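Handover notes (outgoing to incoming on-call)

Open items:
1. Metal-dependent hydrolase: sequence verified, structure written out, both below. Nothing else pending on this one.
2. Nothing else urgent.
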Amino acid sequence: MSTGPTHAMSGLLAWSAVTAIASTHPIGQLSPQSWAVGAVLATGAALLPDLDHPGSTISRTFGALSSGLSAGINVLSSFVYRTTRLKRDSKRDGGHRGLTHTLVFALFAAVFTAAVIQNSQKWALPVLMFVFAGLAVRGIMNDWCPKQDALLITAVSAGITWAMIAWTSQTDASAAACGIAVGIGCFAHYIGDAITEQGCPILWPIPIMGKTWFPVAPPKIMRMKTGGVVEMAIVGPIVTILSIWLGLAALQGTGALPFLDWVDLLPI
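Metal-dependent hydrolase structure tokens:
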């Protein structure tokens, strides 16, 4: 599940599912504005782990700025891989599907997001919204947007950020909810990569079968080829439909969709 559109929609699906199902938990009792902010962050965060690959489309989202950041992350990921791998780990450079594809990174991203917004919400929230909106737009529009058109992505991201900030007061956006959204988005990415042929080293640095970079994955018969027919014709559409359905259910729970009160979108 490594193509941009599927990754992006999986982030939205994961956020929608968590907030719709956890109706008795604070994360399931957000205001419509806070939920929407989380949706943007989770959708964008579902692309974030691929910033470890300088050649990826996502790494070119904001032109030279994101490309330079991606190159730096790739070097760091390679270094961590080389210094922590065991004898049974493959002798690859470890740049892609390395450090940013672990639960350690997801936890760091979540805590960092929450801490920054908590301490500097006035400027941090718009900046983070802009960045994650850009990743989300690039992922979703991957098949229609010119690969090198960073200006278009920047303009669309700025528009989304302006609309969200104009709609959301400073007290609406919960720092904790924003951090959780980013963590959920990253985790959705890992699940998507785990069901591809390569698997995903989610549990690093825990040694499994003599490997600290053990590629977590289901049996081979349950894996799929990245960008193959199964993903594009079956998995992608299903993820999109579920994300819309559960997103509506979550918004219904916030009271944002009173015109749908006549139907129970989540009968559990």
